[in-house]
Design goal:
This protein is an alpha/beta fold. Helix content is 38%, strand content 14%. It has one domain (10-243, 311-336): NADP-dependent oxidoreductase domain (TIM Barrel), CATH 3.20.20. It has 13 helices and ten strands. The strands form two sheets. Strands 3-4-5-6-7-8-9-10 form an eight-stranded parallel beta barrel, surrounded by six helices. Strands 1-2 form a two-stranded antiparallel sheet.
């Protein structure tokens, strides 16, 4: 089954035009071997997905042994597919401060030299001369992220100000190594400050912010949506299926149950279950959305993806898959419309459970 045609969308105020579905690649090199990764990328491009996202720290879950593996696989795919690089809008990310991963970044900061060195490493692994969208993976300063709920000023440890970060990114743009820049896991203040300083000093303006957004985490709608709409910055929504919770595969057996699908990331990796997606409240909410989907003649996956695909807040939805079959299922959900009654029912559940995977 072919999904309806996907019209390209603009990212922020940049010149980038991308497909409204983006192929996330963080499974490549850990759950997904090179041959399957090649097949997934071939199929994505064949079906009109021309926007690929990766990061220097991938594969995930993060390990020293697989750091950079995903970019390397993509680079080999480009090398074996003449002309493919010109067809793909390529996004990658520079890691922020270490967060317990010294093999990615040493120390508490993310200096201008770190940004330059990381870009060079990504270019080399990807086998390309330029990155279309270069994003800061998480803020250099202390922010509540990856499941942390509250900002604590006592934990501030910033070493490199936003102006200096922008200047480093600006040098990469001037050198022709990066076309446009973006952010990830950001806050309203952070987006405003990046835009303010860019406009004040004639530095590159962020085109997009890549944040979690799904039925279990709609925190984007608590201020980020207005900020980014008014500033002309686009949302790249990641984890639309909440690490598999919203596919229905855990509706009977919890991820820790031996009877659950053991190939799934949240079942396979304890480090993933310790994050926001592993909360009991998140699983309970996911089961309610699964039941709602079935009541309306949809699969849980269709409901979760259509929610992101049709929201005005979302420019492009990042889907991560481990097989061509999963990719096709996700792409086939494109064009699914949710009735006003169904959207009201979704909001009613959220009113009760709020954002359990925030």
């Amino acid at each position: 089954m072919n999904s309806p045609s996907m019209q390209p969308v603009a990212l922020g105020q940049s010149a980038l035009q991308v497909s409204p579905i983006c192929l996330g690649t963080m499974t490549f090199g850990e759950q997904v071997g090179e041959a399957e990764a090649f097949a997934i990328m071939d199929r994505a491009l064949e079906r009109g997905v021309d926007f690929f996202d990766t990061a220097e720290m991938y594969a995930v879950p993060a390990r020293a042994e697989t750091c950079g593996a995903t970019e390397t696989i993509i680079g080999r795919w480009f090398a074996q597919r003449p002309g493919a690089r010109a067809k793909v809008v390529l996004a990658t990310k520079v890691a922020g401060p270490s967060r317990g991963m010294p093999w990615v970044r040493e120390g508490k900061g993310m200096t201008a030299a770190d940004i330059a060195a990381s870009c060079e490493g990504s270019l080399r692994r990807l086998g390309t001369d330029v990155i279309d969208l270069y994003q800061i993976h998480w803020p250099e300063r202390n922010v509540p992220a990856f499941g942390q709920l509250y900002y604590d000023p006592a934990k501030e440890s910033s070493q490199t100000g936003i102006h200096e970060q922008l200047e480093a990114l600006g040098r990469l743009v001037r050198e022709g190594k990066v076309r446009h820049i973006g952010l990830s896991n950001e806050t309203p203040w952070g987006v405003h400050e990046f835009v303010r300083l860019a406009e004040q000093h004639g530095l590159p303006r962020v085109a997009s912010v890549q944040n979690a957004y799904c039925l279990l985490n709609r925190s984007w709608e608590n201020g980020m949506d207005e900020s980014c709409h008014r500033l002309g910055v686009s949302l790249l929504a990641y984890s639309p299926l909440a690490f598999g919770l919203l596919t229905g595969k855990f509706d009977v057996h919890a991820p820790t149950d031996p009877a659950a699908p053991q190939a799934a990331r949240i079942a396979r990796y304890e480090s993933v279950r310790k994050q926001r997606w592993g909360r009991p409240e998140a699983l309970a909410a996911a089961r309610r959305y699964s039941a709602l989907a079935r009541e309306h003649g949809l699969t849980p996956t269709q409901l979760a993806l259509a929610f992101c695909y049709t929201k005005w807040q979302v420019a492009s939805t990042i889907i991560g898959v481990t097989s061509v079959a999963q990719l096709d299922e996700d792409l086939n959900a494109w064009g699914t419309q949710l009735s006003p009654e169904l959207l009201s029912a979704i909001d009613a559940i959220r009113w009760e459970v709020r954002d359990p995977a925030q």
